[in-house]
Specification:
The chain is an alpha+beta fold. Helix content is 18%, strand content 22%. It has one domain (4-136): Double-stranded beta-helix (4-Layer Sandwich). The termini are far apart.
Length: 139
């Protein structure tokens, strides 16, 4: 809905990669890419998942996106927020929320949660090198 060109770009790359080498091990079945067309998934099991300020410089560049879904029993009013530095935003992330943003160009971090709480995350992304490999006819 919000970024159909990005969706199509990711879906085409993922589909082309699978077609180029069927022996590749996929993170999830190729037919599921119509929902989330990312090539990679990182599962952060915490138990108190947080990250320091960084950019994911090897992900797809300015036009790319990643998706971060947060889970677990924690008080999202007190912690677990995502900070998007260049945008000057601190985004409250209640359990179950998902955010899409260009992690290669926006420095981001998460606010720690309480010692007795749990926070996990799922992060979907595609490496920029994968798109370059597709663009170069898999060479």
């Amino acid at each position: 809905t919000w970024a159909p060109e990005v969706y199509e770009d990711y879906l085409k790359c993922h589909t082309d990669v699978v077609a180029s080498d069927p022996s590749l091990d996929l993170v999830y079945p190729a037919e599921s890419t119509s929902i989330l067309p990312f090539a990679s998934l990182t599962v952060n099991l915490g138990p108190r998942t947080a990250c320091n300020r960084h950019r994911d410089i090897k992900n797809r560049g300015a036009g790319g996106k990643c998706a971060v879904k947060v889970l677990g029993p924690y008080d999202s009013k007190c912690g677990g927020h995502i900070v998007l530095h260049e945008l000057g935003l601190v985004v409250e992330m209640p359990p179950g929320d998902t955010i899409f943003f260009p992690s290669a160009i926006i420095s981001h971090e998460t606010i720690p949660i309480g010692a007795d709480e749990r926070r996990y995350s799922l992060v979907w992304y595609s490496a920029g090198g994968l798109f370059r490999w597709c663009d170069a006819n898999f060479q």
